[in-house]
Write the structure tokens for this entry.
Amino acid sequence: MAPLICGLRIVIILFLYCYRSTASGTALTFELPETEKVCFTEKFRDTTTKLFVYKVLRGGNNDINVWILSPNGKIVYKADRTTENKILFDSSYGEYQFCFDNEFSAFSHKVVYFDLRKEQIDNLAVEAGNTIPTVNTAAESSCDNIHEVMSMVVDYQRDYRLKEVMGRYIGEVINAGVMWWSVGQTVIVMVIGFGQVFILKTFFTERSSKTSI
């Protein structure tokens, strides 16, 4: 009976974790038009270390201006014409702003990905809302280890998907360039071929001369 209750408890904790992680996700991919900027806000209620990750997936030279503002208006991080970065910062109580600026680009819009999360991964009990410290059983410790490893797997998969998106976009651009280059070369070859046939035809055409009496 005890193993059944323990297993049921683990299932409930996993369900609550999945539910809470789905509802509080902070990863986002968005398009930023040219000559515009956008800011996202996040209110923190703790003082833990946060990890902020961003990457420009495509658009122009894959560069963008990024800065982070603290609740009192202080610039926590600022970078100009950057492509990607990972920033660790100590948060305080209040609302933070994460801004992306593409005002320097007049022709190309950007596709940007960013993710905001805690540096340290919480265990399943904390994810489920249990903040009272307790001694974990062997099963709970194993679940926490699995949870930590699976969180790392999710991070690796996310990085792989981002690289796949960038690689696919580059492949599509190269494919379109090669296709139009091939079409242009085909048109040039056909024009040159018809021109050569026309010129050679004029060499072998007999012109009848008319004499007047």
Notes: The chain has one domain: 2-165.
